[in-house]
Design a protein that fits this description.
By secondary structure, the protein is of the alpha/beta class. Helix content is about 55%, strand content about 10%. It has a seven-stranded mixed sheet, sandwiched between helices. Strand 6, helix 6 and strand 7 form a beta-alpha-beta unit. Helix 7 packs across helix 12 and helix 8 packs across helix 9. The radius of gyration is 21 Å and the shape is elongated.
């Protein structure tokens, strides 16, 4: 039995707890930390998992999953450092924070695995990308992969690629939500009721994603199958290209990558 503590029970932390339970982990293997007593009580009632303090988690858990906001990491590390056990594995779900930060602040030799998840974890469809720190073993990386597979798909990359991952899949759901929002507005502009426009666009997005996933075909191939010569779709594509939508997406994702680098650098310099 591997004892797991989730430090920070926000949306991602709660989603991971629920996913671990649904994946067969027992409540007695799990614990979590939460600053707000009312929410802690609510989560304990919902999942049967006890709320503990950070020092208690450091003493009892073999795997410590850090799921706090990046700006809240310092007090958590201050509490963990003097109490974390020599065999404990630290799994960081904090955007932009490098494994080197944890390795510098925690006892020498502490194994750390960096993870970039995304919010579809709340519906069991996360894209989680993992990278080992200097002291993490192959077995520990496999353990983290197994834990996260309860809430979606998992990919391994070198840590040097994590800022790009953060920009692409970490922030990625927001880009899709933004596009869906704009397309729903377009439907309303064309005279459709909002409820109808929402159903049309959301189901189209689900269907398109399923086609990409299940057929394995390149998105260009799938797009061309919808784009008849002289038809409606090619006229729409022409307008998207004329307004620089492709270039805007490239620039947006580069900007997100740059911000991820800044967040990590701020912590390293601090």
């Amino acid at each position: 039995m591997t004892t797991i503590a989730v430090l920070g029970a926000g949306k991602i932390g709660e989603a991971l707890l629920g996913g671990l339970l649904n994946g067969g982990r027992r409540a007695e293997e799990l614990m979590f930390t939460e600053r707000h007593e009312e929410r802690a009580a609510e989560l304990t009632q919902r999942y049967g998992v006890p709320a503990v303090t950070v020092p208690e988690a450091a003493k009892r858990a073999e795997v410590l999953v850090v799921a706090v906001k990046p700006q809240d990491i310092e007090p958590v590390l201050d509490e963990l450092a003097p109490l974390i056990g020599p065999g404990s594995l630290v799994v960081s779900l904090c955007a932009g924070l490098p494994t080197a930060l944890y390795e510098r602040r925690l006892p020498e030799g502490t194994p750390v695995v960096r993870v970039m998840p995304n919010t579809p974890m709340v519906v069991g469809e996360a894209m989680s990308v993992i990278s080992p720190g200097r002291h993490a073993t192959a077995d520990q990386l496999t353990l983290v992969e197994d834990l996260l597979s309860c809430v979606g798909s998992v990919v391994r990359v070198p840590e040097a690629q994590q800022d790009a991952v953060t920009a692409l899949s970490g922030s990625g759901p927001a880009y899709f939500f933004f596009l869906v929002e704009a397309m729903i507005d377009a439907g309303i502009l064309l005279g459709l009721p909002r409820a109808v426009a929402e159903k049309l666009i959301i189901q189209s997005a689900v269907g398109a994603a399923t086609m990409l996933s299940d057929t394995g075909q390149h998105p260009v191939t799938l797009r061309e199958a919808v784009t008849s010569p002289g038809g409606t779709t090619i006229n729409a594509i022409r307008e998207l290209e004329r307004h620089g939508v492709r270039a805007a997406l490239l620039a947006a994702i580069e900007a997100a990558r740059d911000r991820s680098v800044e967040l990590g650098k701020a912590q390293q310099d601090g």
